Fold these 3 entries.
Entry 1:
Amino acid sequence: MIQNKIIKVALVGNPNTGKTSIFNQLTGLNQKVGNYPGITVEKKTGKAKINSNTEASILDLPGTYSINPTTIDENIVIQTLLNTKGKDYPDVIVVVADVVNLKRNLLLFSQIKDLQIPAILALNMSDQMERKGISIDIELLKKELKSEVVLLSSRKNIGIDKLKNAIVNFDKNNIEALADISDRIDKDFFDKIRKVFNNIPLYKAWLYITQMDNLEGLTNTQLLLIDELKANKEQLKKYQHKETIYRYQLINTILSKVYQVDTSSASDLRSKLDRVLTHKIFGYVIFAAILFVIFQSIFDWATLPMDWIDGFFGDLSLKIKEVLPAGMLTDLLAEGIIPGIGGIVIFIPQIAILFLFVAVLEESGYMSRVVFLMDKIMRKYGMSGKSVVPLISGTACAIPAIMAARNISGWKERLITILVTPFTTCSARLPVYAIIIALVIPPQRVLGFFSLQGLTLLSLYILGFASALVSGYVLHKVLKVRSKSLFVIEMPNYKLPSLKNVFFTVVDKTKAFVFGAGKIILAISIILWFLASNGPSNFKNAEIIFENSTLSTVEKEQKIAAYKLENSYIGIMGKAIEPAIKPLGYDWKIGIALVSSFAAREVFVGTLATIYSVGNDDEDNTTIKKRMAAEINPDTGEERFNFPVGMSLMVFYAFAMQCMSTLAIVKRETNSWKWPMLQLFGMGLLAYIASFITYSILA
């Protein structure tokens, strides 16, 4: 028993076993998300108070079916568990298994047990046992597996205290291997390995030979043996196959003693639901209806909190000017930082609602059915069924979505998925769409029920997804790469979403979006404020030019502010690009926002907030939405953000690749600048042409 110290715990398990739910139950909000050193794979860690004098540092490792990795994410598991000197090397491993699919889950447990690291088997989803007609002899299972076994339900918070007790009382000496693979495969072969690797467990040495490329801390004799054995690849594959067969034989023997299923008492609701939700007609209708509800809710539910946030930041800017003495610092706060941050915070309600629905769909098990449903469609467009996961994930953010494409084994399918994923409407586009829709689409109801604004947003999401499919089809025909991959997906059981898991997901993802975008917006807001508040010599002549005018004091101040903005550094830059964007219906102010938003799309709104704040010296609390609505086109005398301009802008953002972070990830995933540059210029050209056509038709 370890006391008065931190126990390092690694959570390992198959996908869809509830591993992340257990992580959330143990750590609560005391979580930290980062990346593994040198690789863009998400790393989740957290602290858990086990008892009054013991704390656990918990690492949630990526889901894997076997310790033999087939993807980059799965490779993280073996890298962590074999690196005894690494800071993430655990004192004890908690292997999370699903009681319904115990046979498959125990393959991973048997492999980890043979690494001879203290291991605890956490049997999750115990609340489903009665409904499924399952009974398990836990005490006999402990004896057979030579390990502690805990029965729990993370969804109903049952057995978590027992798991904590097992963690704090783990036996560091209980490292007996479960399976002796040497006698079952080739005794002479493994005796040779055992002789050279006499200081580590045999199974760990076997994994060094079959799975590891970067080997450190080994002797020359050990390295020479590894090179010798690796030369015969066919033999190694044969032995790995024999190992898997032997492990399943052992697992079958154990389960025959401890695991029983009474099919007469089990209900088959899952099959009934699957017949409807994956139906070749009704499945698509139901999926479309769910999307419709999501986008209706994004506008209907978020209106009140968004209006409150909008007014709050307008009042805050005014209060800053009233309380602080006039000067550069006050102007920076009131006209640069506060409007810029307000321009992104206002969209937290809509983004949180989007993440809420996505989390519920994933938690319930429905998202896997969507992936299965869309497989036939995806194959026609040069992608694997697994490509649906990145495309759907892209509605949150293209960066993790592109990283999720690592699970696609075929290079051509994976490359096409990476290239087309940025077309799907990510949450960074949502602030742009939301404010433009609010300006140019009336808040009317269609048929007395459907929100016209919600329908517009749904149409933009459909446009993004359709663009991804069409682009995939074109790339499939153009790219001459031979590749083929199989589509394999697990259908998890249906379950009621855990409120705690949904809450943590929404908080984590919203926080990541706001703080990730906030850093960029804050920096750009300060730069834009400086460029808009300073200029060459004629910039300072505004007061002299309007000194003898007959305008009222308020009108004179507005004229001076507008003149300064137009002749500032940023005004000069905007005027320079205005001829190129005028055919799209944009002026130099919108041009500045377009250019600045190439860092990240959501910067568009923050940029306009900063520009209009600097260019408006009135003393009211006019918010960004009102200022954009009041902007006038001097050539026509009409509203700048009218229907043609609004639609042109939304079409531009639907197609343009405006995210430097996404381009960096594409470069990293493809190991070439060729593909991100193709995305940047190809999508940019498409956006320009589509926006030009849209404006020309509607104007």
Note: The longest strand covers residues 42-51.
Entry 2:
Amino acid sequence: MKRATRVVLAAVTAVAMTLSCTDSYLYDQRREDQLPRDRTVAVEGEFCTPSTNEVIRPIKILVAMDASQSMRVTDPNGSRAQAAVDLIESLPQEDEVFILVMLFAGSTTAWLSRSGTQTFESINSYTQADKDNLRQRILTFTAPGNMANRDSTDFVKPLSDIYAVINRDLADSRLNAMGDETRARYSVIFLSDGQPTNNQDDELLCGDAVRRIRQLKDLADDVKVNTVHVFLPDQPVASSNCDFDGGVNIPGGGSSCRIPNLPPGACPLLIVNQNAERLSRMADLGGGDFRDFRNNEPINFLNFRFGQVRRNFIFDKLVASNFSAPAGSPLDLADTDSDGLLDFHPDPMVPDEVKEGTSPWVLDTDTDGFSDGVEVYFRGRGGNFTPNQVFDPTLDGGGVDPGCPPELRGVDQDCDALLDCDEQIIGTNALRMDSDDDGIADSVEFKLGSQPSSKDLDQDPDNDRLNNRSELMMHTDPLVVDSENLSVIGYRYETLKDGGLDGQGRQCFTFRISNISLANTLPDTRDAGNPDGGADLYRRGAGYNDIFVTTSMRPADDPTGRSIMRGFRHTTTRFPVGGIKSPHDGIIRVTTDDFLPGCVPSQVQPATP
């Protein structure tokens, strides 16, 4: 009797529950063959702009002066020497402002640093006696011993020395910064009164004598070559020698990047103008400014723009990307090793790890320095790449694909999820997370299909009325019309200011990025059946995802200036097939201290079995 009563009560209870909670169930048969619908997570937390004292940008100025004998005629009062001293005295008296003065004459280069070496020195270290000594050394310089004739003028040699000094200083600065970006701004002031003794326009204006100095800006905050033309003689130049009516023979004027040659004495005033034109073009090539001092105007360097040591930065972009999931995150597609090559794709025409015979757990299967996804991408565009070569130690330490030095294989100096050798062929900077300064990391742009080495965020190659900026931020494909599915597949951003500036002068923000879809990545089973147990192999369960979040800040005083990028990389979020999502509440929590410059370590490394 009691048992029958219990059965009836249980049945009634079950009916009541069914009627009162029609949307709930104790067991759903769909679990047998379908995954739960909610496979998304959100990232939420706080980030801040850097304080004005947090990001220090050293200002380094190199003054290069022509010291040939003609300077005694074109600058008899020595105003160039006083200009160097005035520059030192006018600059902000801070330890982060540096100067180096060099003189050049013929093939001779002299460095007038206090230490006598090719080293930038803080202007705070200059005493009044040092300044007076510098002025005298500039005015009384003579080529020592049997050095080359001071009457000759050579531009290419000092420019080559300038390149070497800045390049070495960049390398030393980066070494001292422990791999962080070199944020120094270099300004060269190149002063001369004339032209090279032997025509050097092919190297100066058509070649890379100036251009390569400017190109060093990719390794620093900026590098500029400013030029100064000096012509301040005591006696005016007679113009009666210029017979334009009779015609002046100007040979060598066939190239648009050369200055036409004039015979000696043909027209002194025109030669002076041509000298100024040469230096002006050099400034254009060097990204700097040109100053021309004539008509008894004293030389000064005070109008050149050197920038500021301490700068305010404003928030630019917040971007999230799941490297384990392709754009749009289809349920059946995943990229377990985040190499840009899917584990499997049902379309036989789409390459994947299975078709290529590569490992879905290894970024670079054949250890040749190029990741599998990059090799397949460029092979499809005619490159000589094979992602699954057999390792052969006799072949320079790995495979035979060209272009990657052995010492760079497996290296990612900026930790942007692109190997250094990958960046070489992609065309990005292996020392910067964001090569084109558009606020989106190189790896995000390349893996989603935009151009990481050029500013293309405003373009819309698939004509779906979403530009690349929107597609990259929402983790959709810039080359596929997918705007109709944004409500389902697009990442969603909320960013709010957290009050005013804090005590450190930072503006902080709270944020939430939601609807980040997870992928069903593969478990690592490479050591299955290994007699030794595979102790040297790394095993990991299924479903782990690789989520990368970056913030970019732009200088408030220069909208086109180099931005600051900080990143957070999270590798423990998990969504295995038939399992339970982790974190269970679907929220990855981040603090401002989690966003790091330069190399970004994974927040939690899975334990080795």
Note: DSSP finds 14 helices and 15 strands in the chain.
Entry 3:
Amino acid sequence: MGHLPKKTLEDLEFFRVTDQITDFAITPMGKSACQTLVPLPDQETLFKELHAVSEYLASFANDNRIPNHGFEDLSPAFQLLKIENSVLEITAFRNIATASLTVNTLLKFLYKFKTYYPSLYQLGSQVEVNKEIKKEIDNVIDRFGEIRDNASDSLYILRKQIQGLKGKIAQSFNKALSHYQNLDYLDDIRESVVENKRVLAVKAMHRRKVKGGIMGSSKTGSIVFIEPEATLNFSRELQNLVFEEMEEIKKILSQLTDFLRPLLGLIKSYQRYLIHIDTIFARARYAQVINGLLPIFSDHQELELKNAYHPLLYRTHKLEDKKTFPQDIHLHPKSRIVVISGPNAGGKSITLKTVGLLQLMLQSGILIPVHEKSRVCWFDSILTDIGDNQSIENHLSTYSYRLKNMKSFLRKCDDKTLFLIDEFGTGSDPELGGALAEVILEDFYERKSFGLITTHYANLKLLADEQPAMVNANMQFDDKTLEPVFKLILGEAGSSFTFEVAQKNGIPFSLINRAKKKIERGKVRFDATIARMQKERHKMAKTGKSLKEKENKFENESERLEKLNEKLKSKLVNYQELFDHNQRMIVLGNKLNDLAERFFQNNKKRPLIAEILRLVESENAKRKRKTLAQAKKDRKVKKEVAKDVSQKLVNIRKEKKKKKTTSPLPPPKALVVLKVGDKVRMLDGKSVGSIDSIEKQKAIVNYGLFTTQVSLDQLEIAN
């Protein structure tokens, strides 16, 4: 990477992130490697690392779990393998064998699942698979760390002889034990162990009677420990054999060390690979904790962070069960520099640090907590001027210190630079400092650099308004409580709320007014206008939200009415069809009634049948015109409507019944004598007809299209 001073890493607290990642590594060497994580030198290496970490993170959630990568430090063996005739310790051999098996298992697994883990597979593609190392070591050393009997023919013979001798020693000792026990030369404890040898516990008074080597005595001197003579001879022989065994083992381990010596390079590559895997694992676990992911890498110079969290703040707040506010920041060629203004303690510095730290993490191969649709790019250099420069050491030279910083900025800035400056231009006379800050910012602008600055200077806010690729932004504040909302609003400058905050904190109103008069009227007006605009914006956002809600409500209502309208239309059509059908049935009924009347008069069957057949044929001719499907549909409609109508009739009858029972009987109507020719209607009907004839309390009423017979008491005069 181009220019990345250590100061940038310190300013943005990058080392706190690496400390947190270190906790997740599972080996001491992996932990050391995590401590040394820094931004990578080029994009190609970076992409490999980021994709590898992203794949490892995905492995936590799927069934193809990556095998364990734990290992013991192999470094002590490296030095010995360089020295001729040196011999490794047994533990070193076992650690090398285990590491070799671990690497081979990982490589085999990643080869099998390379479609899932292409980048992880690629990382180990240069590491050689070697099964001989483990095989050779296992032939010599067993899983308990003991040298196998068959490690060499000589060792096998020696150990056989040793076993035989040990048997003879036990036999001869037991013989002596029972012999002297019978003679009552032994103490109650009978025997003991001295220097790993079984010895007789002889009473002191009988010690001269027992042949053998004296090995010591008890504290009181009442017991003397003697190794029997026969056993003594076998023990000397055993010592010689054990010495020969040790020499043979040295020889075997020396040969095994010679076998490993030419493989030193491979063993080193195994350790490097496992350390690398451990750092990838630690970064993946850290990403799991902070919700880190790999955003989209853009082909252009642009930074579009959505829902970006400051990882350190996020973790601290998570432990304290507090809410962390995410930020949205967008830098692109048409809006390269963002000037953030507004009151202190509103989160301006946090926004700056979030952008810087996330960029550093990303360029160090660490996944970042942002929305997956965020877009990022590569910066050759990241320059910062953040942090408390008011420390005791440089208290007197804060301004000159910052100017030196600006000097190095001006030397390094180009179109692949991201600069982050907190409280730009402070530390000097406001008028002069502001002017100097303005020309420095113009220089950064002309060099096409990308950056974020925070400031209270009005002239810098104005500059951002004038330049097309520079934009003002402010941290939103609640204008009533003056509490920060921690939301960055692009496109407008922020008021410092200086006087409002002073007033809130109890500074007398008279003093605030005097202060306002002291400054240029224009400056106060400018600040007041900005403050007013922010309040207006807040109101408009609220109004917009409320209008949106109302619009949604009206849309839903309109939809409901439309559906209701459709239902009513369809019902109306169905009723019309039923009415037409019933009218046809009435006409048909009348025709049949006429035929019956004629037959009643003349009693002639043939003309009756002929007429009926003609009537049926005429009806069937109409039916043929309708398709089968139409007929089906009609039947369905009739059924539905009839059901509907019958349901309504049932309800009407119920209502009438209720009324009859609850309401008092109406006074009897005055009797009207009906006669032929009167205009009448049925008591519960609306259609008006005239009486054609009256017979036995029944009237034939003519309705024009049809006639019908009705009881006289069901009719009333139509007015």
Note: The first helix runs from residue 6 to 11.
